[in-house]
Amino acid sequence: MRNKKAGFWPYLLIMPALLVVMAVVFIPALNAVLMSFQSYDLRRPSEIGFIGADNYIKVMRDSLFWSSLWRTLLWVLFGVGFQFVFGFCLALLLNRPFRGRGLARSVSLIPWVTPGVLIGLMWRWIYDGSYGVLNDILLKLNLIDESIPFLARVSTVFPAVVVTIIWQGIPFFALMLLAGLQGVPGELYEAADIDGANVFQKFIQITVPSLQNTIYVTTLLRIIWVANSVDVIFNMTGGGPAYASQTLSVYIFNKANALNLGYSSAMSIILTILLLLVAIPYLKNLFRNQEN
Q1: How many domains does the chain divide into?
Q2: How far is residue 86 CA from its own chain's centroid?
Q3: In CATH, what number is assigned to the domain containing residue 153?
Q4: Residue 100 needs a FRET pair 20 to 30 A away by CA distance; which of 53, 60, 187, 282 works?
Q5: pTM of the shown model
Q6: Domain limits at 138?
């Protein structure tokens, strides 16, 4: 009887958390799947009903969907890629002893803890063609002859929002990689010094292998977060001009904001499947490590 009670208690203790997860994750996700098979436009409530796979067929024929998907791939590739490179450099710098290191570590977190809405508004002011600080600096340095409306030009708007998301995500990589660096045994570097290894060799042979799991997990998390990011782009450009900065998540948000919930749900399911495909290698590696 005592063993049965002991086996029952763990399930009872996790029940509240399980109910919360079901309420905020599984039930809305199931509802989104159901809506994706319906004509669910709140502007025409009388037409709400089951339409099968019509939404998915329309998505496959939607040129804006494909252009937004391609832009999402570039958004993730350049955004996460440069976040990782600059974050790694910052982590290596903050791992070295110097005066004021604690303050530097705290200040470096500011972009990460700043709300996305505020970041979007702040960088929209920086890029403004009339009174933006970036144009003012470039004009004073004689690098340009006239102000550039960065967020109003098709050729400059996407690089501008990519720079913004890079700036926001650098502290995340820096913080996670810094924690990993502090867990690398110093004896490894001492042994490498005795063997005559240079800085580059120690970085390739010791630092990177020691941070392999940290790099994998943090990169996967940032890919998912950046792919789903809406607030920065929406508050900077809304996806314009001429859809030049519209990623798939922003397109989904704009469709949902226009009350076409069935169509936006179908695109959300497709995005979720694509992100699950990205996460599968990590899950396989996780289960393999648990078996070992």
Answers
A1: 1
A2: 15
A3: 1.10.3720.10
A4: 187
A5: 0.88
A6: 76-245
* Cα 251 to Cα 1, 32, 37, 80, 227, distances in angstroms: 57, 16, 19, 20, 12
Nearest CA to 29 out of 273, 274, 284, 278 is that of: 273
Query: What is the Cα–Cα distance from 69 to 76, expressed in whole angstroms?
Result: 11
Confirm whether 106 is domain-assigned.
Answer: yes
Angstrom CA distances, 15 to 7, 12, 27, 28, 268, stand at 14, 5, 16, 19, 29
- Model confidence pLDDT, tens digit, residues 92-119: 999 888 888 888 888 888 999 899 899 9
Q: Is 225 exposed, middle or buried (0-12, 13-18, 19+ CB in 10 A)?
A: middle
Pull the structure tokens for residue 92. Answer: 């290596």
Give the integer Cα–Cα distance in Å for 21 and 118. Answer: 29
71-75, 96-100, 110-114, 233-237: least confidently modelled range: 96-100
Structure-derived torsion over alpha carbons of residues 5, 11, 13, 19, reported in degrees to the nearest 10:
-150
Decide if pLDDT at 141 tops 80: yes
Does a structural domain hold residue 167? yes
Banded pLDDT at 287 (limits 50, 70, 90): low
Q: Is residue 18 part of a domain?
A: no
pLDDT digits (tens, 9 = 90+) for 40-69: 888 888 788 889 899 999 999 999 999 999
